[in-house]
Structure prediction request, 288 residues.
Amino acid sequence: MPLPKSAYVSDVWRDGIFANKVVFCTGGAGTICSAQVRALVHLGANACIIGRKVEKTESVAADIATARPGAKVLGLGNVDVRNPESLQAAADRCAKELGSIDFVIAGAAGNFLSSMNNLSTNAFKAVMDIDVLGSYNTVKATLPYLVESAAKHKTDGVTPPAKGTGGRIIFVSATIHYTGMPLQSHVMVAKAGVDQLAHAVCIEQGPRGITSNVIAPGPIRGTEGMERLSTKANSDPAVAGRGVPSGRWGTVKEIADATVYLFSDSGNYVNGEILVVDGGAWHLNGST
Ligand code: HXC
Prediction:
């Protein structure tokens, strides 16, 4: 029995707000990104998710497509964000088959726990390449389409854009580089780079109507990242809430809601920002 829409996205959002919009998402088969895409599809969007594993990417796409009757969701596997050619081919195919790319979620990331002593140059580089270079490649592959989408809503330069905008990017970052975390030097450096890439895109592409923001999820229940970082807390709710002012870990739905906000008309004038969604955890952990 499928869960109701309210399990995936808050009822505050109106049905159809993303009708005729297309979202392109790297890392789209992962727990957080698939929830972000599913929420947008519930609200009217079509989508293209990108991943390295063919079977997993196709099956997650098929599952997301059940969110709304008539939804089109492409799952393109065998695409590595480190390979600009394969990414460009995927972006072109998305635009050709679905008609446009209005929103981009750059979510592909790599992570594992390792001390610097055990981290080889190649291991550090692998994470930098997936997170930073992969996000850059994603921008390059999709930017012409985003500019085209943003141009549809260009105004006189004084009036805010008309209803239902496009030309928006969200980078999925993290909070561990704000507080610091042992065994995560590679990820701390990579995510700091992702934040700055978002900032750079805002400055350079803002005049073309693009908005570029970051969502920085904190401890989110049931995600691959948290499973890798903290298995005990994942299985013990009493432990999980420690160190979070809100007293609990977050849900992927709460990341999906932040995504909807930034892509919706409510987020028109938010550009170059980092939206931390972590129940206040980094304020507390950063102060100790
Ligand atoms: C030390 C490791 C390692 C480990 C891999 N390496 N795992 N070193 N400890 N646990 C080293 C390898 O030995 C190799 O170096 C280098 O990393 C590249 O490994 P490959 O397996 O060849 O690379 P690749 O197949 O490209 O895999 C990339 C990966 C892998 C990042 C290493 O973990 C991966 O594919 N992850 C994708 C899924 C993922 O991580 N999802 C979680 C995202 S969550 P040598 O020197 O031997 O050649 C997330 C949230 C972060 O990002 C924030 C959480 C709060």
In short: The first strand starts at residue 22 and ends at 26. The mean pLDDT is 94.
